[in-house]
Amino acid sequence: MALRTIAEAIECLTLQKANLPVYQAQVGATAADITRVNEHLAILSSLVDQCELCDANKKTAFGIKDQVLRGAVGEPVAPVPTTPAYVPPFPLLSGILHITNSANRRFEEGPAYDEEIGIALGIIRPSPSAPTPGTVKPTLETFPAQSGNMFAFIIGNRGQSDMWKLSTSPVAVTNWTLAETGTGKAGENVATPPTPGQPTQLQARIQLFKNNQPYGLLSDIVLVTVNP
Predict the structure, then answer these.
(1) pLDDT, tens digit (0-9, with 9 covering 90-100), for 25-38
(2) Of the candidates 12, 67, 76, 173, which lies 20 to 30 Å from 214 by C-alpha distance?
(3) Residue 50 binned pLDDT confidence (cut-offs 50, 70, 90)
(4) Residue 132, CA atoms < 13 Å, CB-side half-sphere
């Protein structure tokens, strides 16, 4: 499978740095391939580190700018960070992604290449295993409306479930009742406040289901205030 991102390229080259010398004969790799892998990995890794440093310093600098403009009078202001000049570990070149993909296609034509070697060299990326059902724990985010006793919600980390049930309970008591059932990643609920005309704080939680059976763990309890 062709590499498309810098993260995929770094993962592939990291595996090849460790394993290409082991499988050099099986894939027909040369000594120049091994040198290239080491150099290109060092270049990409150093560029990622440099870009992260530049980004962090940029965010700090913008924060200082806002503090200087809007901060409390007299509070200390840190100096604007200076990003050191970038010194690459090897001369920079363009097209590392293309070069790596081309080399990988050549390795696949090697005299003893197989799937196991492809995985070891990062050429084949194995499919992620399905999550263990008993460990899947959904997330729940709530978004109260300004009126109507309504709130919207988003459910994340649903694993391989095919349904969910939202339960709610008044705060400070344990009186869970089924509020909504659905299959998508979002929903809405209109609460029935115990005191009409007053804002009401509720507890909310999600239970996932698969084939009509409970799937995974209950979400953490989230508090939401609905407005009349």
Answers:
(1) 999 999 999 999 99
(2) 173
(3) very high
(4) 2
Under a CB-based contact definition with an 8 Å cutoff, are residues 161 and 209 in contact? Answer: yes
The overall longest dimension of the chain from CA atoms, in Å, is 78
Looking from the CA of 58 toward its CB, the CA atoms found within 13 Å total: 6
- Is the pTM value of this prediction over 0.70? no
User: What pLDDT is stored for residue 194 in this prediction?
Assistant: 80
8 A C-beta contact, residue 29 and residue 23: yes
